[in-house]
Design goal:
By secondary structure, the protein is α/β, with parallel strands linked by helices. The chain has one domain (12-255): Rossmann fold (3-Layer(aba) Sandwich), CATH 3.40.50. Helices cover 44% and strands 10% of the residues. It has helices at 17-25, 49-65, 93-108, 125-139, 151-166, 178-187, 207-216, 235-255; strands at residues 30-35, 68-70, 114-119, 144-147, 172-175, 227-228. A four-stranded parallel beta sheet has the order 2-1-3-4, with helices on both faces. Helix 2 crosses helix 8 (235-255).
Length: 258
């Protein structure tokens, strides 16, 4: 798995079967399963934002855990509330659940003993919380399922990152805002259309608001698809946000046996 002059590769899809078997034999019994989305992210970010975010977080999480490998990101997620915007893709909750079960069912036969699920897309979390017990039951006892499900903690980590570095915590609304735009400036700066960045919905984002947005669509509350304001985005905020969310998932996974 380690070659002279190359960084340590943790992504299962980029390893050979023999290298994966060697890693499992050496103690890599945990697999990371990142979930993403392909959905609108305002006029300035690509639809791949959440999946690119999940890709990056998964590698950071695996490196911190130390004995984990990364599964391919499930790139299309649950995004019906974004279908009012061109190009958005969405799968049904039952489809997302089935994909997770199918991914994970393949793991146990090869020697993995646990899987850690998280999402780079906030909209997947209600679905994950709902299917977690079914997923755990379907895979037990061969595979322990650890589902990070605290989307509110992620939003809070973004706010703290933006506030501590630039006093911009109030501009975090959770979608194509200062936090997500900053993350993309770290991951793929060439894909950020900075000249098109604009504020969107600037009101309170609470459970009542999110329920309304999920039912009526994001376009009903934000015509440009942005929740928050991307103004002031920076790589410094992006790095802080990535580190903070990585630490949240790692702490949760470690507390649950990963």
């Amino acid at each position: 798995m380690k070659h002279p002059g190359r960084p340590r590769e943790l992504r299962i899809e980029h390893l050979t079967s023999a290298e994966i078997a060697e890693a499992i034999a050496a103690g890599a019994r945990t697999a990371i399963l990142p979930l993403g989305a392909i959905e609108q992210h305002g006029p300035h970010l690509p639809l791949s934002m959440d999946s690119d975010h999940a890709d990056a977080l998964a590698l950071r999480i695996a490196h911190k855990l130390g004995t984990a490998l990364v599964l391919p990101t499930v790139r299309v997620g649950y995004s019906p509330h974004h279908l009012g915007f061109s190009g958005t893709l969405s799968v049904r909750p039952s489809t997302l659940e089935a994909i997770c079960i199918d991914y994970c069912s393949s793991l146990a036969a090869h020697g993995f003993t646990r899987v850690v699920l998280f999402s780079g897309h906030i909209g997947n979390y209600p679905i994950m919380r709902e299917f977690e017990p079914r997923l755990a039951a379907a895979l037990a006892p061969a595979l322990q399922v650890i589902v990070y499900r605290d989307s509110a903690a992620i939003l809070d980590a973004w706010r703290k990152s933006a506030q501590s570095l630039a006093g911009l915590g109030s501009q975090v609304g959770g979608h194509a805002d200062v936090a997500e735009t900053s993350v993309m400036l770290v991951l793929h700066p060439e894909s950020v259309r900075t000249d098109r960045a604009a504020a969107g919905y600037l009101g309170t984002v609470d459970e009542e608001f999110l329920h309304r947005a999920f039912i009526d669509g994001i376009d009903s509350v934000s015509p440009n698809g942005v929740l928050g304001d991307p103004t002031g985005s920076s790589k410094a905020i992006g790095h802080a946000a990535l580190d903070a969310v990585t630490d949240l998932v790692v702490a949760y996974a470690t507390a649950h046996g990963a």
